[in-house]
């Protein structure tokens, strides 16, 4: 099963946008995260709709942050991407009348819901400016 890395890829891009502090093309962002520019444009359009970035066409065009990273949380980006469930572990429903299957599903569902609620709560506490700030400032000073 392939991992969904869209959230981490977008976070990567957003931190770069803050550091670069000028418009960045979809092509350049695609190179940063080893994907197709069309994928970047589709994803960034979701963030534009949510008010976190803006885009401009033309010679000096590209994507820019509208809000500082310190005012954006992991939860904000997760929600802007329209991410569904955190966990994709499926519950079986092949024998829905079986009391054992019902008990197993109930136990798994409760644990997954509890873990997801805790994770989303924590996402809401972490602003994007906290993502590796020591490493980033060192990287920028070298560059």
TrEMBL record:
Gene3D superfamilies, alphabetized: Winged helix-like DNA-binding domain superfamily/Winged helix DNA-binding domain (1.10.10.10)
Xref: SUPFAM superfamilies: Winged helix' DNA-binding domain
GO annotations of cellular component type: cytosol
GO molecular function: DNA-binding transcription factor activity
Organism domain of life: Bacteria
Descriptive protein name: Rrf2 family transcriptional regulator
Organism: Lacimicrobium alkaliphilum
Upper classification of the organism: Bacteria, Pseudomonadati, Pseudomonadota, Gammaproteobacteria, Alteromonadales
